[in-house]
Each structure stands twice: as structure tokens, then as C-alpha cells.
């Protein structure tokens, strides 16, 4: 292909990308509420990301999608960092997508809004998975729907024994839309992942540990943040450049044993787009 032709094609693909990005941002910033907060501790090398929408059990609004991505961008640039803890505000993790937002997406079935939201969040959650930091989800209270998907983005999960974890998407007439199925199959294998995804069963922290979804359990008498920090610190004792290098190697290794995550995510988005606003999804939204 001639150089001129290559230049004009890359110009076209850049415009398509920037058009997609503009439409994603326009859609997400219409649905406001809550925040995603980041505290960086230079001394320990550990950052704390908090999903903050406690009145809705930390449901993720449109504007929180955007803030989630912004915080990840900050972490990508954090050269001296070693670790990250992702948690929810008010002793609960996350109840998934804000149902008001999901309802708005479902109403516009004929638009590609569900796909815009899903592809945005898949990109952001993949970037979280690939951060050159050791990442831990601190899970207490509820981690349901997209909240359960989010906990799978981290390298480890430290979970309260009585936490309630459920991939409720099927119950909502939906499939996962934030990359959760791909990551769950990688974590647990196909059979165990399918059992959770197709039953929408809600399991405790103890049961999550039994099937390999939780790496460490804490109880009533433990301070959640202290328990999680102490778990994480075991993996942060070497210099940040060594930890970052190890994480990069692990990320590359997990990519090479399967089709590219981007390809698998694109398939998931198509499936999500087809279900969102369909009969099962509308019936579930009417029940809520
Ligand atoms: C990516 C696609 C997806 O994530 S689809 C899946 C979306 N998520 C869900 O279906 C979970 C919906 N929520 C629930 O099932 C329950 O609220 C759970 C999380 C189990 C908590 O139950 P419970 O302890 O009884 O609290 P509650 O239901 O009274 O909730 C307190 C207030 O929070 C709200 N809330 C909760 N989850 C969401 C959500 N995802 N979106 C919007 N609002 C949510 C509830 O409506 C309730 O509000 P209010 O106090 O009645 O005004």
C-alpha cells in the first residue's frame, strides 16, 4: 500500500475513533451522580480508588464511567506507584450499572447506546486490568451485576466472609457488558464461570473463596482496609520498577494464551447490545 494511501486510511480510522469517543462521552455525561475518588500515598506506593455513590449502593452512573476512566489514566502515569486497592464507599462494593441509566439505554433499543456504554467500560476495565500495579478489590456488602464484573478486573480479591456476590445480569435479561464473562472464564474456567453467570446465584465471601474467586477472607472483627492493605503489602516489598515489570510480564502472558481481549470484548458488546432493551430486559426492568 502506498504511503499516501496509508496516511489517508489512518486519518479515516482516527476520525471514526474520535467520533465514537465523542458519542460515548455525550451519552455518559447526560447521566450524572456520584463520583470515583482517588487517593495516592507516595510513602506506601499504594493508591485507593473509591466508588462513591452510597445512596445507590455505589451504582455506576454515566458520569462515574467517565471519572473511572480518568482515575485509571492518572494511575497509568503514576511512575512510583506499586499497588492499588479498589473499594466502594460505605461498607459495600458496587451494585453495578445505575438502573436509571440502564433503563434509559433499554428504552433506546434501536440506537447503539448500549454498545457505546459497553465498549467504553470494556476499554476502561481492560486498562484497569493492565495497570502496571498490583491491584486488589476490597469486597464487602454487595458486589452485584457490573459490580461483580468490576471485582474481576483486579489481580486479587480480598472479601468479607458474608459479602454478597452475584452476576445478576441474566436476571436482568442482559449479558455481561463490562468484560466480566471473559475475565471470569479466565479466573475460574468455563464451567464454574457459566454456573455463576447463568444462575445469577448470589454467593457469600466464604463460597467465593471455595471456588477461587476470593483470594483472602476477612471477618467482622477485622478492619477491612487494614486487612486488605496487609494482604497487598506482601506483594509490594520490591522496588516499583521490579513490580511494574513483573506485572507487565503477567499481563502479556495472559494475553498470549487466548484470542486478544479486544476481540473477545467486541463480541461481548454485540451480545449485550442485542439483549439490552429486548423483551427479557424490559420485563426485568419493569419488575425492579
Ligand atoms: C452492567 C449492567 C448491570 O450492572 S445490570 C445489573 C444492575 N444491578 C442490579 O440489578 C442490582 C440492583 N440492586 C439490588 O438488587 C439491591 O439494591 C441490592 C444491591 C441487592 C441491595 O439490596 P438492599 O440492601 O435491600 O438495598 P436496596 O435495594 O433498598 O437499595 C438501596 C437503594 O439503592 C438503590 N439501588 C441499588 N442498586 C441500584 C442500582 N444498580 N441502580 C440504581 N439504584 C440502585 C435502590 O433503589 C435503593 O434506593 P432507594 O433507597 O429506594 O431510593
Return the CATH architecture of the largest domain: Alpha-Beta Complex
Shape: globular
> What's the arrangement of strands in the largest beta sheet?
1-2-3-4-6-9
Which value, in Å, is the CA radius of gyration? 19 Å
**SS field, number of helical segments:** 12
State the secondary-structure class: alpha/beta
Bound molecules: propionyl Coenzyme A
- CATH class group of the largest domain: Alpha Beta
Report the end-to-end length measured between terminal Cα atoms.
55 Å
Work out the helicity level: 40-55%
Count of separate structural domains? 2
Strand content: 5-15%
Query: What would the average pLDDT be, to the nearest integer?
Result: 92
- Name the CATH homologous superfamily of the largest domain: 2-enoyl-CoA Hydratase, Chain A, domain 1
Give unreliable regions as ranges: none
Task: Tally the beta strands.
Answer: 9
Compressed to H and E, one letter per element, the order equals HEEHEHHEEHEEHHEHEHHHH
Sketch the major β-sheet. 6 strands, mixed
Describe this structure in words.
With 288 residues, the chain is an alpha/beta fold. The chain folds into 2 domains: 18-234, 2-enoyl-CoA Hydratase, Chain A, domain 1; 240-286. It contains 12 helices and 9 strands. It has a 6-stranded mixed beta sheet, sandwiched between helices. The protein has a 3-stranded mixed beta sheet with strand order 5-7-8. α2 (62-76) links the parallel β2 and β3 (83-88). α1 (3-29) packs across α2, α1 crosses α4 (113-129) and α6 packs across α7. The longest helix has 27 residues, at 3-29. The chain is globular, with a radius of gyration of 19 Å. The mean pLDDT is 92. The structure holds propionyl Coenzyme A. Propionyl Coenzyme A (1VU) is lined by residues 56-57, 59, 95-100, 102, 142, 144-146, 168-169, 172, 174, 177-178.
